[in-house]
């Protein structure tokens, strides 16, 4: 269900090219940090685990506080059921001041081949085109197909979205909660060739569909409060 590049680098500080990197406390360039924030490159410790679920936690380090002067703890719980994978983020502001966050679950969905994949659920939704200086446009199509680089932040979207794969005769469904936005990304040929941790042809095998807090504005988190958001992935055969 999830794509992982054959060239992925499993060595910090490089983020893993595949799976579901956690973009936090910043998505993309929406803030002062480097792309997608530092949590995707951070060490997490095991808080709790069973045969089908695990909870991991990270707390801001002194080094990170120099870049982002707001203490927080981020917990990630992943549960695997017979038919679904659930991933929950819980971020607690453990400092004395409120702070603003943006975020995404950068979900790399594996597809049989990109020309047989499309994303549904976004017709009529406004988006920012990241390839045109975040120009705001409205999605006209019943589904989004891929024939060139595509990088868009859909704003305040419906909570159920799908990557339909006509090749595998299945749809990967994403049900999101607490993430208003959704990012759709495929790097296509030129960008793929420029990424050292991604095979030249691997753009044919993946689509990123990323529940996000991004273009529709940051979340303000008060001291002592916890922000929660979640995605559930499931497969529908047809
Ligand atoms: O290369 P990375 O930092 O992992 O980012 C990979 C991609 O992530 C998101 O999908 C952004 O919308 C893209 O603009 C970015 O290229």
TrEMBL record:
InterPro entries: Aldose_1/G6P_1-epimerase (IPR008183), G6P_1-epimerase (IPR025532), Gal_mutarotase_sf_dom (IPR011013), GH-type_carb-bd (IPR014718). Its EC number is 5.1.3.15. The keyword Transmembrane helix does not apply. It comes from the Eukaryota. Keywords: Isomerase. One of its GO terms (biological process) is carbohydrate metabolic process. It is an enzyme of class 5 (isomerase). The keyword Isomerase applies. CDD domains: D-hex-6-P-epi_like. One of its GO terms (cellular component) is cytoplasm. Pfam families: Aldose_epim. It catalyses: alpha-D-glucose 6-phosphate = beta-D-glucose 6-phosphate. One of its GO terms (molecular function) is carbohydrate binding. Belongs to the glucose-6-phosphate 1-epimerase family. This is glucose-6-phosphate 1-epimerase. The lineage of its organism: Eukaryota, Viridiplantae, Chlorophyta, core chlorophytes, Trebouxiophyceae.
């Amino acid at each position: 269900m999830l794509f992982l590049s054959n060239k992925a680098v499993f060595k910090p500080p490089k983020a893993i090219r595949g799976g579901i990197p956690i973009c936090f406390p910043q998505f993309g360039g929406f803030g002062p940090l480097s792309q997608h924030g530092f949590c995707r490159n951070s060490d997490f410790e095991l808080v709790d685990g069973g045969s089908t679920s695990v909870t991991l936690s990270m707390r801001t380090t002194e080094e990170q506080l120099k870049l982002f002067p707001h203490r927080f703890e981020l917990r990630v719980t992943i549960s695997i059921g017979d038919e679904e994978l659930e991933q929950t983020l819980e971020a607690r502001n453990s400092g004395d001041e409120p702070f603003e966050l943006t975020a995404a679950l950068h979900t790399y969905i594996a597809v049989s081949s990109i020309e047989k994949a499309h994303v549904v659920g976004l017709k009529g939704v406004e988006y920012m085109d990241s390839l045109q200086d975040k120009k705001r446009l409205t999605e006209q199509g019943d589904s989004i197909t891929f024939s060139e680089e595509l990088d868009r932040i859909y704003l305040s979207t419906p909570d159920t979205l799908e990557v339909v794969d006509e090749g595998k005769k299945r749809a990967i469904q994403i049900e999101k909660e607490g993430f208003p936005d959704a990012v759709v990304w495929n790097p296509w040929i030129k960008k793929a060739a420029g990424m050292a941790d991604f095979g030249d042809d691997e753009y044919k095998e993946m689509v990123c569909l990323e529940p996000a807090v991004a273009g529709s504005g940051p979340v303000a988190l008060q001291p002592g409060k916890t922000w929660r958001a979640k995605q559930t992935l499931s497969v529908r055969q047809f």
